[in-house]
Amino acid sequence: MKRFIIAALVFALAACTEDTPLTPIGDDDAEFHFERGYGHGKRNLRVLTRNVYVGADVDVVLAAQNPEDVPLLVAQAFQQLLATNFPERAGALAREIHRTKPHLVGLQEISTVRIQSPGDAILGGTIPAEDVVFDYLEILMAALAAQGEDYTVVARIQNPDVEIPMVTGVVNGTPTFDDIRLTDYDVILARKGVEVSDIIERNYAVALPIEALGITIPRGFVAATAHIKGKSYRFVNTHLEPASVAEILPIQLAQADELIRTFATETLPVILVGDLNTHAPTGETYQLLLSAGYIDAWTTRSRRDKGFTCCHDPGLMNTEVNFDRRIDLVLARPAENTRFRAPLARVIGKRLRERTPSGLWPSDHGGVWASLRFQPRRHYADKH
Fold first, then answer.
1. What is the DSSP string of 280-339?
2. How far apart are the C-alpha atoms of 110 and 350, rounded to whole Å?
3. Which of 87-91, 277-281, 300-304, 361-365 has the lowest mean pLDDT?
4. Residue 120: pLDDT above 70?
5. Is 110 exposed, middle or buried (0-12, 13-18, 19+ CB in 10 A)?
6. End-to-end CA gap in the chain
7. What is the pLDDT of residue 69?
8. pLDDT for position 31
9. What is the distance of C-alpha 264 from the center of its chain?
10. β 44-51/295-296 pair status
């Protein structure tokens, strides 16, 4: 157990000792300073969506066909998680938020990693692992506070909570095992001064079964009504099931349909952010959301940047960026007789200068920051 505690402390110290300011970033190819208020007009709502990445390619574990392979695959994934050093990455994520100053932040893959040493799962035991190795939300909130930022966790939904044996070595010819427990959350953060109400924290009715491991992977969403400078908005954050194969697409569509139905009668402007795992503009789930009245913020003005957000290498040390899809999205469904546009939007986390001091990307995804504007249609009619 000591080796994991020591690793966590070393990573935390590394994150605290390196606080080099990042180079200002721009919309498309034009550089501008978020700190100077560009895109921060009084009528604008600033939002950010960020899949922060657990730090390991867990899909390799979930895709295992032979249960006997799982403990070794978990051990490999855990070493990768340690190497991708979330405390250091959290510092970079906090600096992004410090510079872009969103009113509301939607976070996906906010993880809590626990360990039990020795483990009992390999023998059929059911004692849950409780020793915390990393609490991503706690680490990120501390990093934000270190930047002088005051954000509050206003909503959090627990998604998968999975405990799996991990091989740790061999003693007298017998393998030894720890148990690793990974709990995943989606979270909404609100900036100081943003009042919130009407919180929803809910799992979808349809979840993904993983028969080889005997588990189910639930997904969920969080929502809050945000009151900012006399205006109110319904802000929703989610992480839909990846539809990497055709058989999973119906699960993703069912989750999106539940989301649409939940807010179908909402009269406030609805802002939906998250890792939606549907390719814009061709994905079936993306098209379903558009048919329900949602507008893609990225498409409300001409942008030279294609807006691709995925993906960096699982180890986060790649020096070439090969994003090839747009799956992290900011969508909005305006209130009746309201016009919506995003005068400013950009992808964060795809330029080499945005990496951490040791060369890690903050996440395997890029984040999407947008400045949103909702105005009565009569404003445009009167003006023209």
1. TTT-HHHHHHHHTT-EEGGGSS--SS----B---TTS--SS----B--EEEEEEPPTTEE
2. 20
3. 300-304
4. yes
5. buried
6. 69
7. 85
8. 37
9. 24
10. unpaired
In terms of C-beta density within 10 A (0-12 exposed, 13-18 middle, 19 or more buried), how is residue 66 classed? exposed
| Contact of 61 with 164, CB cutoff 8 Å | yes
Q: Are 109 and 54 in contact (CB under 8 A)?
A: yes
What are 235's strand-pairing partners?
224, 271
Mean pLDDT for all residues in the chain? 88
* Strand ranges in the chain using DSSP code E only, listed in sequence order: 26-27, 30-31, 44-51, 104-116, 131-135, 151-171, 174-191, 195-203, 208-210, 215-217, 220-228, 231-239, 270-275, 295-296, 328-333, 338-348, 367-376
User: Which residue from 218, 290, 233, 224 is spatially nearest to 260, judged by alpha carbons?
Assistant: 290
Largest Cα separation within the chain, whole Å, is 84
Instruction: Please tell me the distance from the alpha carbon of residue 258 to that of residue 262, in angstroms, as a whole number.
Output: 6
pLDDT of res. 359 = 98
Q: Express as a percent the part of the chain with pLDDT over 70.
A: 87
Q: Which two tokens stand for residue 217?
A: 């992977």
In terms of residues, how long is the chain? 384
**Nearest 5°: CA angle at 110, between 90 and 127?**
120
- The helix/strand/coil state of 74 is helix
pLDDT at 117: 95
> What are the beta bridge partners of residue 113?
134, 182
At residue 286's C-alpha, the angle toward residues 282 and 289, to 5°, is 145
Cα distance between residue 90 and residue 73, in whole Å:
25
**Main-chain phi, psi angles of 58, to 5 degrees:** -70, -15
pLDDT beyond 70 at 30: no
Q: For the residues 153-166, what does the mean pLDDT come to?
A: 96
pTM of the model: 0.88
Instruction: Say if residues 27 and 345 touch (Cβ distance below 8 Å).
Output: yes
Tokens of 10: 């070393």
Q: How far is CA 32 from the centre of its chain?
A: 25
